[in-house]
């Protein structure tokens, strides 16, 4: 700028490069949903946004429940990747048609063949009549298992017990009455055109966990009665023979650099426990191999395991019961695992549903990050409270946790006076320096913040001026982390150390275009074991 006349001139000078902290709680949910694009991350900021893009709750798949509880527990932003078997057509949904009404299982798979329906007059007659009356009831039943139980069978069984549902017995077999829609008429099946939804479709498809309804006749014709339970047919595929293609779904995340937590809530639906563990291992490997390594997995244990079986599942050993096979251990600081499953209260039906806890736990991570910081363990009676849980599928004692905790299995417990809380804060790693979730996530936060905040350094002259600028910027960033409570030390020199000078950047490394920045940090670790020492003292008299 040329100065032509006397006076005061103002110029703006470039200041130091600010290193901004990256986000820590944007979560990715991967699994089956009833709608949405396949293998494409879709940004979701609310439960309503999820329903518009991916549909409602459905039995046999847990992504909708996980996303709902993520937002309920404090989460604010997530991506959802709809994943399916390869090819998707390898799984089909069971269905049955009566008149103009078609009833289909809410999700594909063999499990839908265990569903049956009844169409009865309303109010209920005893014995039921085959002659239809204007008002009718649609009943949804699930065949009571007579052999080895699948995961879906076990979930339905708990659903029936928790909600005190009734059993319907016929001459051939018994059924659990899982849903009932009374007070329907022919008018509920009518609609103005084929693209509209009838009142029956709106009611059932917005409330049912087990079925979806479709009406083909716009005139609205009442279906004939089905006094005997009539089974749905044509369901094909299962979690073992036609597994979800997780590698393709995870690969769709490669371009994303704004994600922090990973949840795969459907791994627990796999009936092969060895395959369950393998799927979690795949997710851990993905987190470890990303460049940069910015993702942390929140995993679920299988449903209904005992303490010894849970440890065997994590450690890769075979359980004495023979339920858990031997395999590779889950050993990584880029993930944590939680047990048991929780009961979630579904307000649409006023019934509790057993679901894996990972979605709710991810919500507590997000809320703890927002309220305190990523350096705080998302556990305990304050930051680990799971308000959306109304029960647990197992009640662990302190003795149980004596075994689970050292083995890196985080227990969720129902504590007197406090309710249901996450009571573990450990990663899956056997490395003692990376035992705690908060330490690993703090290191991820620091590393990724520096990764993006130092991009300006590339191609700058590698000299003392650059070293001084880098030292200043990194020191300023780590000072904010220390002052927020993330690093241990009464003085800055105790909390972290930054070195970028001639001693770690000799001529030979500079000649290769290398710049080395050595950083040491002292993360704050959680007070996992609080020991209160009380001594009885005899005070002097006088």
Automatic annotation (TrEMBL):
Signal peptide: none annotated. InterPro entries: Tail_sheath_C, Tail_sheath_structural. Residues 430-536 form the Tail sheath protein C-terminal domain. Belongs to the myoviridae tail sheath protein family. This is Phage tail sheath family protein.
């Amino acid at each position: 700028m040329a100065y032509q006349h006397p006076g005061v001139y103002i110029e703006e000078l470039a200041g130091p490069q600010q290193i901004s902290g990256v986000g820590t709680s944007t979560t990715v949910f991967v699994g089956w949903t009833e709608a949405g694009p396949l293998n494409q991350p879709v940004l979701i900021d609310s439960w309503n946004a999820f329903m518009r893009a991916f549909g409602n709750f459905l039995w046999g798949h847990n992504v909708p429940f996980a996303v709902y509880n993520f937002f309920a527990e404090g989460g604010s932003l997530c991506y959802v990747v709809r994943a399916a078997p390869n090819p998707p057509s390898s799984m089909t949904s069971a269905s049955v048609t009566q008149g103009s009404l078609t009833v289909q299982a809410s999700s594909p798979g063999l499990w839908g063949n265990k569903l049956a329906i009844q169409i009865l007059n309303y109010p209920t007659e005893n014995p039921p009549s085959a002659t239809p009356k204007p008002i009718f009831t649609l009943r949804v039943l699930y065949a009571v298992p007579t052999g080895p139980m699948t995961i879906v069978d076990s979930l339905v069984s708990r659903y029936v017990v928790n909600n005190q549902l009734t059993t319907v017995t016929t001459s051939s077999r018994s059924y659990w009455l899982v849903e009932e829609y009374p007070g329907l008429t022919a008018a509920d099946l009518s609609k103005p055109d084929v693209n509209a939804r009838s009142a029956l479709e709106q009611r059932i498809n917005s409330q049912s966990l087990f079925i979806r309804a479709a009406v083909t006749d716009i005139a609205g014709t009442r279906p004939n009665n089905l006094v005997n339970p009539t089974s749905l047919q044509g369901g094909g595929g299962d979690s073992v023979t036609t597994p979800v293609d997780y590698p393709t779904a995870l690969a769709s995340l490669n371009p994303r650099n704004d994600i922090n937590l990973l949840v795969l809530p459907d791994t627990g639906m796999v009936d092969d426990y060895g395959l369950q563990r393998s799927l979690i291992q795949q997710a851990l490997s993905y987190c470890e191999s990303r460049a940069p390594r910015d993702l942390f997995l929140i995993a679920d244990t299988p449903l209904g395991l005992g303490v010894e079986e849970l440890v065997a599942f994590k450690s890769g050993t075979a359980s004495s019961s023979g339920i858990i096979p031997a395999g590779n251990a889950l050993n990584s600081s880029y993930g944590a695992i939680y047990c048991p499953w929780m009961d979630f209260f579904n307000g649409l039906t006023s019934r509790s549903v057993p679901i894996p806890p990972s979605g709710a736990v991810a919500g507590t991570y997000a809320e703890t990050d927002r309220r305190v910081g990523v350096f705080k363990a998302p556990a305990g009676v304050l930051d680990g409270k799971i308000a959306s849980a109304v029960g647990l599928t197992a009640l662990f004692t302190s003795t149980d946790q004596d075994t689970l905790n050292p083995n890196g299995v985080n227990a969720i417990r129902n504590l007197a006076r406090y309710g249901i809380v996450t009571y573990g804060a450990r990663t899956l790693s056997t490395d003692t320096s990376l035992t705690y979730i908060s330490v690993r996530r703090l290191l991820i936060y620091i590393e990724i913040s520096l990764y993006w905040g130092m991009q300006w350094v590339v191609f700058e002259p590698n000299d003392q001026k650059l070293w001084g600028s880098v030292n200043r910027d990194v020191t300023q960033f780590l000072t904010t982390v220390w002052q927020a409570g993330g690093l241990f030390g009464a003085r800055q020199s105790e909390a972290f150390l930054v070195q970028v000078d001639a001693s770690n950047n000799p001529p030979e490394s500079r000649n290769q275009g290398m710049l080395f920045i050595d950083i040491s940090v002292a993360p704050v670790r959680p007070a996992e074991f609080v020991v209160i020492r009380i001594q009885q003292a005899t005070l002097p008299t006088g």
